[in-house]
Amino acid sequence: MQLKEYSDYVKKRVDAFLQSKIESLDNSIPLLKEILSYGLLLGGKRSRPLLVYATGSMFNVPLERLDYIAAAIECIHAYSLIHDDMPEMDNDTYRRGHITVHKKYGQDMALLAGDTLQSLAFELLSSNEYSLASEHKIKLVNILAKASGYSGMCGGQALDLLSENKHISLDELKLLHSKKTGALIESAVLLGAYAYENIDDSHIIRLSNYAKLVGLAFQVWDDVLDVVGDSSKTGKAVGADVLLGKSTYPALMGVQEAKDYALELAAKAINEIQTMDKDCSLLIDFANFVVSRDH
Q1: Are the C-beta atoms of residues 156 and 17 closer than 8 Å to each other?
Q2: pTM, whole model, 2 decimals?
């Protein structure tokens, strides 16, 4: 299956699953349910769920198991975007071409919606409704918690805020983004791999190396799009990072050099997995997509 076709399939599958889980919540707080659905289901590429499904499918993991895992990481990603858009962070008005949650529903409800999605992620991951040994579910919870917290996304966001209107080195920028963006992308691949109960350590090492490289390429390309992208395709204002005084790869390296660096990272990522004794075609296509997309 081609990546575009697979991506469309994943988006429909995980969105339907997430919608069913939101609808299954009781109706005691209808406004909060509405906000959860708005923040979670309006747009987005579903890149992280795609990586969960693509990696898990390499090891023939049942799709019904991957549904819960993919939904969990999308809940974490969605909560992070809701909080990231708030005035205390980036103060964005648009996300994915729509009014941001705090602009539409208020800062207090946006904060609570993000918190609720974070809790929902771990509720899904630890659920008894899908088949996986308890010790393996604990492993999945640990992977996602680390990728979301101090050592990952939240730590990276803190570094990002502390770096505004400051000149930071390229190494410092790499560290920032390995946490803010890369950790969750790496966790998506690892979650898909560890959903297979007999995963081999050698596979984990190569998949982890792949994911680290792809995660960095993803962020470098995002920085490039912030300079040369089309806001009608990216769904947010171009040049936002410059206005916030953030250090970016194009600012530190130049736009063309940043593009070349992203392409180099993607090529190295592909090299890590292309000789595995599994069908890695979707992961290879994803690495190529990351450095060719316009949104």
Answers
A1: no
A2: 0.93
- Which pair of structure tokens corresponds to residue 201? 């350590």
- 51 near 105, Cβ under 8 Å? no
Q: Is 88 helix (H, G, I), strand (E, B) or coil?
A: coil
Helix (H) or strand (E) holding 98: strand 98-99
Tokens standing for residue 101: 């949650």
Per-residue pLDDT tens digits for 176-196? 999 999 999 999 999 999 999
Distance CA 65, CA 62 (A): 5
Residue 246 DSSP SS3: coil
Residue pair 190/211 in contact (Cβ under 8 Å)? The answer is: yes
User: What pLDDT score does 1 carry?
Assistant: 75
* Token reading at 87: 């005035």
Residue-wise pLDDT tens digits, 156-178: 999 999 988 888 999 999 999 99
- Between helix 281-290 and helix 47-58 the angle, nearest 10°, is 160
Q: ∠ CA 98-103-108 to the nearest 5 degrees?
A: 130
| Residue 64 burial (CB count, 10 A) | 11
Distance CA 29, CA 26 (A): 8
Q: How far apart are CA 216 and CA 261, in angstroms?
A: 10
Domains of the chain, CATH where assigned: 3-290 (1.10.600.10)
Residue with tokens 């950790």: 183
8 Å CB contact between 179 and 161: no
- CA–CA gap between residue 134 and residue 52 (Å, rounded): 19
Cα separation, 246 vs 110, in Å, equals 24
CA atoms within 13 A on the CB side of 48: 26
